[in-house]
Fold:
Amino acid sequence: MTAHPNRLHESAARLPAGRPRRAAAGGVSPAGLLALALIGLAALALPLVADSYLLHSCIVVLFFAYMATAWNFVCGYVGQLSIGHAMFAGVGGYATVLLFTGLGLSPWLGLPVGGLLAAALSVVVGYPTFRLRGPYFALTTIAFAEMIRIWVENTESVLGIPVNGAAGLTVPLAGESLAALQFNGKAPYYYLIVALLAGALAATWALERSKLGFYLKAIRGDRDAAESLGISPARYQLVALAISAFMTGIGGGFYAQFFRYVNAERLIGVDLSIDMALMSIIGGQGTVFGPLLGAVLLAPLAEITRGTLGGSFLGLHLVVYGIILMLAVLYLPKGLIAPLRAVLARLARRGGAR
Amino acid sequence: MDPLILSFALVNGLLIGGVYGGVALGLSLIFGVMRVVNFAHGSLLMLALYAAFWLQALAGIDPYASVVVTVPLLFAVGFLIQSVVIAPLIRRESALVVEPLSALLLTAGVYLVIDNLALMAFGPDVRSASSGLALAPLMLGPIPVNMQRLIAFLAAILAAVSLSLWLRSTRMGRAIRATAQNRDAAALSGIDVPLVYAVTFGIGAALLGLFGSLLATFIPITPQVGLSFGIRSFIVVVLGGIGSIPGSIVGGLVIGVFEALASQFVPATSAAILSLGLFVLILLVRPSGLMGRA
Amino acid sequence: MTTTLSRRAVLVRGALALSATAFATGGFATGALAQAEIPVGWVLPLSGGSAAIGQQARTGVQIAVDQINAAGGIKAMGGAKLKLVFADSQSKPDIGSSETERLIQRENVAVIGGAFNSAVTFPATELAERYKTPWIVMGAVKDEITERNFKYVFRINNKATYDAREQLDAIDMLKTETGQGPKTLAIFYEGSDWGRSHAANVRKLAKERGYTLVLDEAAPPNQVDFSAQLLKIRAARPDALIAAFYTPDHLLLSRQLFEQQLNLPFGLHSVGGGTEDPSFYKAVSPKAVAYYFVQEDRQVDALQGEPLPEFVDVEKRFRDTLGYGMSAYGAQGFSVMYVIRDALERARSADRQALRDAIAATDLTSGPAMYVGYQRIKFDEQGQNTFAHGAISQNLNGQRRTVWPAASRAPDTKPAWPVPAFGARS
Structure:
C-alpha cells in the first residue's frame, strides 16, 4: 500500500494527549443512569409476567447480546475482525460439561475454569496472530477455529477424556439443583444471563475509561504511531483478547447448561462466530451498547422469519442479514447505535435547554 | 507405501491442485488490484455452476459450449457487484481512514445474499451436469486419469498465462497494473479508476464463469458448493502470494499435492487440519507467500 | 432534564414492548381459530445442509394431513381437523430447542414430530418430556434417544445399531445363499455425527462376525475430490465397501468410482443418506449406481403391483410438489401423521396426557401408516418401535429391488452376487 507522507503525522495528532479523555460515547449522565436503572428493573421483573417461551426467547437474545459484547471487547476496540471466537465458546462449553461429568465439579466453578482455559487458548492463538492485520487476521482466526472444530469432531477421546467426537456431549439430568446449575424453570437461567450481560457491559464500560482501552483505541487509530509512542500493541491486544475469550468461554458454558447439550458443529462452528461478529458490527462495534443493540435487533429478526414463514422461504432471514450488513457497512460504518445516539443526544440537548 | 500408488496420488494432486489454482486466480487478481478480499468468491463460482447446469437442463447446451455464455454472464455480475456494492465504499474510503475490513464485511454480505437467494431460487437439491463429449479416461498404467479434470487443469494454466500476457500487453491491462501500484497516481495520469476497478472485478468473476462451466462436468452442484472452494481459494492465494498470478497456480499445485499425499497417510479429516495448519504457518512465517514479493 | 429522562425511558420501554410483540406474533396469528382444529407441530431442517430431507418429510406430512382432513378429520372428535405448524431447526440444536419451546408454549400443539438430525432431536425431545408433550421421532437414529426412560418420546424408525446390523445381516445372508462372500471390508464415511456413529457400529459388528476391516476412513462433508481416498481403497483391495455419505458427497463418490472403474467384488453397501434421496438418482448416471446395495428405512419396491388408492394419491402429489418420487423421509412423515390420527381417534381428545397414553398403546398392522414399510408399529416401554426395520435393495437393471429381508424379495429378483466387474458390464 502507498504510505501517505503526512498520514503518520495526522494520526499522531489524532491521539488524545495525556489522560484518557472522557468519551462522549460511553459517558453516562445522571439521566442515563436512571434510564439504565429503569431498564434493569424492567429486565428483572420480566420473569414475573412472561411465559416460558417468551422467557426462553429473551434468554437466547440476551445470550447472543452477551456473546457479541464479549466479541466487541477486543475486536471492537482493536479494530481486528475475529471470525473464530466460537473456539473460545467451545472450550468453555466442553470444559464445563467435562468437568461436571468427569470430576463432578459444579458448573459454578466449571464456568470460570472454562473461561480461564479459553483465555489460555486465546493467548496461544493471539500471540502469533495479532501481528497480522486486516483480512489476514480474520482468515487466520477462521483457520484456527476450523482446525479445532474438525479435530474435536473426529476425536473420540484424548488422554482418557471422552470428547465424544461429532456426537457431542450431553449434560446429565440432575433435576432441580442449584449446585449442578440445573433448573426446571427458566427464570434462574434468565437471571444468570442478565447478570453475565450486565457484567460484560460493565467490563466494557470500564475498559473505555481504563488505560487499556485508551491504548487499544490508540492502536486502532494508528498502530505505527501508537508503537512510536511506546505503546506495545501486542501486549495490550493480548490482554484484551484474553479477557474477551474468558467472557466468551463462560458464554459457552452457559450455552451448555441451558441447552444441556454441546456439539462441535454448532458451538465451535463458523456460524456462531459470524453471528457474534455481525451483531456487534451492525449494532456498533467499539461502543458499550452497540453489540446489545445489534443482538436485540438481529436475533428476533431470525426468530420472526422462522416463526411466521415456517421455512417457506429457505434462508430468507440470511438474505435480510446480508442486505442489512451491506447497508450498515456502506452507510452506517459506526453501526446502528450511531444515529440512535444522535437522536438521543439531540433530545437531551433540547430537554436540557432550559 | 506402494510407490505406484504414491505417484498416482501425485498426479491426482497436480490435477486438482491446478483446478484450485485456476479457481483462485480471480480472488488473487481482485485483491492484488483493489485490496478487497472477496468473501463472495465461492458464491460466484456457485452461480457459474448453476448457470452451466441450467443451460444444459433447459436449453440442452453442453457445459463445455456454455463457456460462451457463463464467461460474459459472470463478467457482468462481477462488474455490477463492483460498481453497485463496492464502489461507494471505495469512494468513501478516499476521504476517510482506510478500513480494509469494511470491504471484507461488504463482500461477506454479498456472500450471504447470493448463497441464500440461490437456495430460495434453486432449492436444496443436488444437481449435476455432464458433457456429451464422451471422453474416455486417459490410462496411465493401471490407473485412469479423468479427462474432465485434465481439461480443467490445462484451462487453469492457459488462463493464468493469458491473464499475465493480457495484463502486460494491452492498454487496459497496463491501466490495471498501474492502478494496483498506486491508485492516486493512476487517477492523476488520466486513468478512469472506477472503470478499471469494475473491469478487474468483472475479469475475476469471468474466470469463475469459465471454471463454472468446466467444473460442472464433475462437481456436484448445491447452493453451498461455493463455500468449500471459497475457503480453499483463500488458502491457495495466501500460499502463493496475494496478488500474484503465477503464485495462484503454484499455491494451488502445492496444496493439491500436499492434500493428496497427506491423505495417503492420514484420514482426509486430519489432512484438512494439516492444510489449515499450513495456511496459518505460511501467514505467520512468510506472509508474502511463496511467490509474492517480501 | 426530566423530559429527557421520561422520553428515553419511553423509547426504551417501547423497544422492549416491540420485541415482545414480535415474539408473540407467531402465536397470536393462529391462536384465535384453534377451536375445531388440533395443532400438530413439526420440527424439521427446512434450511441449511439437510434442507432437502426436511422438505421431503414436510411434503409427506402435508399430504397425509390433507388426506385426513378431506376424509372428515378426526371422527371421534366430531370431525376435528388437523392443523400443521412447521418449525425450522436449521439443523442447529439450540434453534431446534427454541422452536420446540415455541410449538409447545405458543402454538399449543398436541403432539410434535421430527426432527431428522439426532443432534437436534436429542435435546429437543428432553424439552418435550419436561413439558409432558408427546413427540414422535422421525429420521433421527441416535440410539440413546429412546434409551432414557422417557414417557413422552416415541420413535417410529430404526436405531443406528439396527442399520449396521441389517447391512451385515444382508451380506451374511447372501453368503449363506451362494456360498461366497467378502472376507475383507472397507468403511468410508462422512466425518460428522451420522457417518461416524454408523462406522463405530459397523466396526464393532464386523469384528464380532469375523470380517477384517482393511480400511476405516472418514472424510469431512462437502468434498470436491475423492481421488486420494479412491487410491487408498484401491490399495487396500477390500472385497466390499460400506459407505455413509449425504447426497452431494455420495454423488461425487459414485461418479468417481465409476470413472475410475474401481471394482469391488462384493459391491458397494450404502447405508442410505445420498442413495435414499430421490434427487440423487436424478443427478447420477444409472450406470454409476448399478448393483449398489442400499439400506434404507423403507422398502422401495414394496408397492409395485399393489396400487392402493391412497398411495397412488400420495406418490403423485409428492412427485408434483418436489419433482421426484417418494423418499424414505417423505414416507416416514406420512406414516407418523397416520399414527397420530389413530392415537387421536382412540384418545378422543387432543389432551397431551390422553394422547401420550394412546400413542403408547399404538398397535397398528394395517392401514396407511404401514406406508413406511413396516409390518407393525408398536412402541416398547422406552418408546422405540421394535418392529422398525429397513430393507436392503440392489440396483438391478436400473431398478432398486429388495433383496433383504428374504421374505420381502420378489420371486423374480435375483441378487447379483458377486457383482460383475466394470469391464464385464453391458
